[in-house]
Amino acid sequence: xxxxxxxxxxxxxxxxxxxxxxxxxxxxxxxxxxxxxxxxxxxxxxxxxxxxxxxxxxxxxxxxxxxxxxxxxxxxxxxxxxxxxxxxxxxxxxxxxxxxxxxxxxxxxxxxxxxxxxxxxxxxxxxxxxxxxxxxxxxxxxxxxxxxxxxxxxxxxxxxxxxxxxxxxxxxxxxxxxxxxxxxxxxxxxxxxxxxxxxxxxxxxxxxxxxxxxxxxxxxxxxxxxxxxxxxxxxxxxxxxxxxxxxxxxxxxxxxxxxxxxxxxxxxxxxxxxxxxxxxxxxxxxxxxxxxxxxxxxxxxxxxxxxxxxxxxxxxxxxxxxxxxxxxxxxxxxxxxxxxxxxxxxxxxxxxxxxxxxxxxxxxxxxxxxxxxxxxxxxxxxxxxxxxxxxxxxxxxxxxxxxxxxxxxxxxxxxxxxxxxxxxxxxxxxxxxxxxxxxxxxxxxxxxxxxxxxxxxxxxxxxxxxxxxxxxxxxxxxxxxxxxxxxxxxxxxxxxxxxxxxxxxxxxxxxxxxxxxxxxxxxxxxxxxxxxxxxxxxxxxxxxxxxxxxxxxxxxxxxxxxxxxxxxxxxxxxxxxxxxxxxxxxxxxxxxxxxxxxxxxxxxxxxxxxxxxxxxxxxxxxxxxxxxxxxxxxxxxxxxxxxxxxxxxxxxxxxxxxxxxxxxxxxxxxxxxxxxxxxxxxxxxxxxxxxxxxxxxxxxxxxxxxxxxxxxxxxxxxxxxxxxxxxxxxxxxxxxxxxxxxxxxxxxxxxxxxxxxxxxxxxxxxxxxxxxxxxxxxxxxxxxxxxxxxxxxxxxxxxxxxxxxxxxxxxxxxxxxxxxxxxxxxxxxxxxxxxxxxxxxxxxxxxxxxxxxxxxxxxxxxxxxxxxxxxxxxxxxxxxxxxxxxxxxxxxxxxxxxxxxxxxxxxxxxxxxxxx
Length: 916
Ligand SMILES: O=P(O)(O)OC[C@H]1O[C@H](O[C@H]2O[C@H](CO)[C@@H](O)[C@H](O)[C@H]2O)[C@H](O)[C@@H](O)[C@@H]1O
Ligand SMILES: O=c1ccn([C@@H]2O[C@H](COP(=O)(O)OP(=O)(O)O)[C@@H](O)[C@H]2O)c(=O)[nH]1
What we know:
- The protein has 916 residues and is of the alpha/beta class.
- It contains 30 helices and 29 strands.
- A nine-stranded mixed sheet has the order 5-4-1-6-7-8-11-10-9, with helices on both faces. Strands 22-21-20-19-18-27-28-29 form an eight-stranded mixed sheet, with helices on both faces. A six-stranded parallel sheet has the order 14-13-12-15-16-17, sandwiched between helices.
- Helix 7 (233-240) packs across helix 9.
- The longest helix is centred in the N-terminal third of the chain and has 22 residues, at 195-216.
- The radius of gyration is 34 Å and the shape is elongated.
- Mean pLDDT is 81; it is low at 1-17, 26-79, 557-562, 599-605 and 808-872.
- The protein binds ligand L263DTV3 and uridine-5'-diphosphate.
- The site of uridine-5'-diphosphate (UDP) has 17 residues, from helix 3, strand 12, strand 13 and helix 16.
């Protein structure tokens, strides 16, 4: 077709976003040019309604009684559809028991349910709680059968779990916190036990959901977990099956990391969510807050794609929800809705109608709304008999005392205002403590002049979308809280208000009621276009398609994992250790042999970090290893001599301090391996810069060593620390070190300035020579285990053993500044082949005869080194007897990865256990 961009040369989308946009366009295009598809859908739907015998169609059925939420049981239809398991706390129906084995199903009310009803593109099954306690087997069986017809699968939660998990942890902890209402200050839930037992119940409930999902999961399914009730679920699911494609979507706001960090279980919850492959939020702000919480609380890397942890990427993105707008637009044509509209118009003739539709929840700002209306009436007496506010307040979470208190509060205010401004025949506020059915709601939306949404916080707020969808003829005004997610999509057409500012809301009511028709029309059209194009179908399709792309995500994550290091094959390393006769263990100290410290600086940890201490569990194994005649242990560290003395003085080992510039056997004195003409004139001026930044960066500190200076901001605010580091580097380069022979080494949270030549790799040659000489080693070393959290600059220690490895550029050279927060970390290529056979190119070392200058008089050996001939080399190392391990570093020249210092403990314990 001429001019059709999808008909000529295929457009190849380059990015995920481009692919999603292209898909969306293609779907629109198909709908436009293949309207028969739509017709089919319509027919299918009509048939399904006719077949819908399970849902009761009387008033009790709630808002969706004329429609179905499922497509029936036509298996063949679904053959080609993607299977989707939607897991949410609540099923879209609540069950009411009618007898021992008979159940009536009623639609649940709420935004999540409304939105997911629009999802028709997938072969979907719902898994969730039916909102009722069913202790007996007969009842459970009967309910399971009844729900199966609606493609729903129940999770049976008993009363105690519901109380602790749902009323307690979900609605008394997470809900208020995520909506910026803080944590409970008092025991508001009389029967609620402690936080810990609520959290345990939360985990237990999530595990029960996972069990059901796992039972129904088939290979290729996408599992879509919903909301704050199920933050633990992704982790449970991945534990069952790491290949499961798992997405998680949050319907509430995700608060600033400053709020989230109040939660006692903050880290555990974040980590569990991160087990998902895709994590979605309504708005970019919520996604940003989530990434920032992962960075600040877990210390993980945030990238534009998501959050990365040890090479595993969890994608994080905004997927703003929508509604099934067609369903609302169609409903307005139905005779019963038209009748209802007529009734309402007659009832409120001569008065403007204002409408509020909310669950009776603190976050909806109902008292604020009513108070603003009162102020408006107070200030505009001419409007008193010309306007009415209809407030639908759907009861919710009625077991929670806070909600009960809110109900009384609202009743009290409404009563007072009606008493104040009402007449014998009319009251200004009509308050309804109940839900309306779908058609009644549509009719109300249609007759409304001004809708008032004053949420103090709201994930999205679908009511505002539904109102806009029903306003095609009236073109009423939407007053919308700036704290609802919807403000980001409908903000252009709505009047945005701060609900806490009662006067601002009151004056906005006046502005809306008096708004000229052309302005109303413009605003409405803008929003109507948005609501009808950003539908719930689009929302779900985009999320699930993106989940399907998780194929890519998984592959990509695997690729990245492959690019980073494989885990150390511990058993192999131990076995080869036992089979060797002259073993060398080179161990880093900081972040290798030290106790793990939490990334978030607590005062206690910071002090401990400034004085690093040997991991207590390493004392025994280290003692054993050091005593072994056939094992030589070297601790090679950036730390100064005192620190190594304090920590290792009692062991029989070698200590190499300040990156190997000082060396001693613990039985002897310190000697220097420093190049003779090391110029240290720059130290004072660098020290001044470091002092300046330490004073101005709370919780940072610096260490003055003999051959280097280190500024550490590990405990400072991450983002501020990075900014300061950037600034510091500029200061350094333009001032004190502009002409000095120094290297600047940038760590993850540190900046170090060293004299050129001060590296572990440069020192190791000299260190080995001394060791061989001092110990009178006769046999060559046939096993090397080198473990450390070495910075890139110090990775020359690995190149020492494997000279064919690419030499990495030091991370910071004059032209390269630290990456700004949120930008991708440059990838260092790691694609190299590692010979498992004999290390042919092993660097020739000092011979067994040695070349030292006597104790205390060590001098560089480089020139004196005698090249070795086969057989008399210090090293006779087969490739498979060489194990280099980077501790918690994703990309490295080491052969293997050890995840944490705990893994180092396990390894050294195993080695020690082989010794008798
Ligand atoms: O099931 P309840 O505890 O009675 O609560 C009803 C639902 O409330 C919340 O809805 C959220 O989802 C909407 C759609 O994404 C969004 O527009 C709204 O801002 C949110 O508040 C809750 O997240 C659901 O889990 C509840 O089912
Ligand atoms: O009497 C009522 C009042 C509300 N709703 C529905 O409840 C949902 C409320 O969703 P929203 O996102 O506004 O807030 P939530 O209650 O999920 O926090 C909307 O789809 C409404 O149509 C309903 O079905 N009947």
